[in-house]
Amino acid sequence: MGSKIVVNNYGSFDITFVKGKGARIWDSNGKKYIDFLAGIAVNTLGHNFKPLVKAISKQSKKQIHISNYFFSDIGIQYAEKLLKATGFDGVYFGNSGAEGNEAAIKLARKYGFLNGGSKRKVIYTLEKSFHGRTMATITATGQEKFHPEYFAPYVEGFKTIKANDWEAIKTVFDDTTAALLIECVQGEGGVNLIDPEWAVAAAEAARKAGAIVMADEVQTGFGRTGSLLASEQLGFNPDVVSFAKGVAGGIPMGGILFRGKANEVFVAGDHQSTFAGNPLACSAALVVLEELQKEGFLQSVIEKGEYIKNTIKSWNSRIVKDIRGKGLMIGIDIVDEIKVFDIEKKLLEAGVLSSTAGKNTLRLVPPLNITYKEISEGLNILKSVLQ
Q1: Roughly how many angstroms between the first and final C-alpha of the chain, as a whole number?
Q2: Residue ranges in the chain assigned as alpha helix (H)
Q3: How far apart are CA 124 and CA 335, in angstroms?
Q4: In whole angstroms, what is the distance from residue 126 CA to residue 118 CA?
Q5: How far is CA 208 from CA 82, 102, 166, 173, 175, in A?
C-alpha cells in the first residue's frame, strides 16, 4: 500500500508497522518481529520506552518549536549536560546525520580558509566510508556506488585514503588539507573497524599539516559501540564530532560537537536550520543521555554485543565468513555465493528486522536496552536462517 502512494526512493518492503514495545514490533496484520534494526540504529531505547514517551508528551504540552531566534529552557539544559558528558566546548544542533556532516564540512572549509587561505580546502575521508545523501556528503563518501554519473558534477575538494593504511598518512596531508574526517566504525561500508593506533597516528599527521580532525559519529555515537562516543575508544581526540541517529531515541535530531580551535570558527549566519534543536527533540535527547549515563548501561551494551557475536560464532555456520563489530553494531559477512539481501528477506519473513551493508554484510543494530530474552528470541530465528 505505502509504495503506491509514497515515492519509493528507499526500496521499502511492503510491510506497515503499527506498534512496538521494547525490541518487539508488530505489523498491520498482527505479525510480531524482533527488532535487530532499531530504525537503523535510531531507536536507542527501543519502542514505547515509558520515560521517553512521558518526556515527549510533557514537552508537547509546553512547546514543540520556537525557532532558532531564541533559546528554550530544555535546550539549554540538554546542551549543558551534553557538553559536560562529552568534554566538548560547544554544540550545534541539526536534524539529521547528513546535516551534521554538512555543518562539519562547512566548519572545516572555513577553518582551512582562516588558516591557510583558499588553497587549504581539501577534506580527506576514508575509503568505504559513508557520510550522507546530500551533494557534499555523498561526495565525501568513500564508495563509488554512491557517485552515479547522473548526479554529477560533484562538490570539489574531497579526497580519500584507505583506512588503516600507514604509508598513506606519511605523505598525503599538506598545506592544502583542511580536515581529516574519520567514520569511527564504517557502518554502510560493511561494519568495518578502524585501528585505534592508526587513527591516532593519522590524526597526528593531519594536525601536523595544519588541519583539524573530525569524527563522523552519526551511527556510532550515543552508546552504540559501548561508550558515549566511539572516538573515545579510538583515542584520537577529534576537534569536531558529527552526530544524529540514536541521539534522541527516534525524534529527528543531529548536529556537531566542537572544541578547542574548532569552537570559535562559526559566527552568526554561517550555518543555520529552522527546526534544529527544538524543545521536543531536546526533551527526548535528554532522556536518552540520562539513560546512557546510568551505572552499568554502557557496559551492558558491550556485554550484549559480545554475547551476540560469540553465540553466532558458536554455530559454525557454513555461510558466515566473518563476524565483527563494537558494542551493538555488528556485521556478519556472508559467503559470496549467497546474496546478503536474500538473507535479509528470509529473516524478515521469519520475524527479524535487520539490514545489509557493504559488499555482502548483514548488519545488526538492535536497541541498546534490548533484553537477553529478546536477543535469544531473535538469535534463534537468525540461526535457523544461517544454518
Answers
A1: 33
A2: 2-5, 38-41, 50-60, 73-86, 97-114, 135-140, 196-208, 231-234, 279-292, 297-314, 340-350, 372-386
A3: 32
A4: 23
A5: 29, 24, 16, 9, 10
Question: Largest alpha-carbon pair distance within the chain?
Answer: 60
**Residue of 132, 60, 73 lying closest to 99 (CA atoms):** 132
Instruction: Let me know the angle formed at the C-alpha of 21 by 63 and 383, rounded to the nearest 5 degrees.
Output: 140
Residue 342 is predicted with a pLDDT of: 96
CB 222 within 8 A of CB 193: no
Please, which residues have CB within 8 angstroms of residue 182's CB and are 6 or more apart in sequence? 126, 194, 199, 202, 203, 213, 214, 215, 216, 231, 234, 236, 238
Instruction: Report phi then psi at 50, rounded to 5.
Output: -55, -45
Q: How confident is the model at residue 7 (pLDDT cuts 50, 70, 90)?
A: confident
Report helix, strand or coil for 342. helix
Are 137 and 98 spatial neighbours (Cβ–Cβ below 8 Å)? yes
How far apart CA 320 and CA 298 sit, in angstroms, is 28
Are residues 38 and 363 in contact, defined by beta-carbon separation less than 8 angstroms?
A: no
Angle, nearest 10°, between helix axes 73-86 and 279-292?
30
DSSP 22: B
- β-pairing verdict for 122-126 and 158-161: parallel
pTM (two decimals): 0.95
Distance separating alpha carbons of residues 379 and 374, to the nearest angstrom: 9
- DSSP β-ladder status, 192-193 and 177-183: unpaired
Half-sphere exposure of 170 (CA within 13 A, CB side): 3
The whole-chain average pLDDT of the chain stands at 96
Gap between the Cα atoms of 329 and 365, Å rounded: 5
pLDDT over 90 (residue 166): yes
Confidence of residue 3 (pLDDT cuts 50, 70, 90): low
Instruction: Count how many residues are written for the chain.
Output: 387
Whether 381 contacts 347, CB under 8 Å: yes
Which residues are 320's β-sheet partners?
A: 334
Round to whole Å and give the CA distance between 37 and 364.
6
Radius of gyration of the chain (CA): 21
Q: What is the pLDDT of residue 4?
A: 67
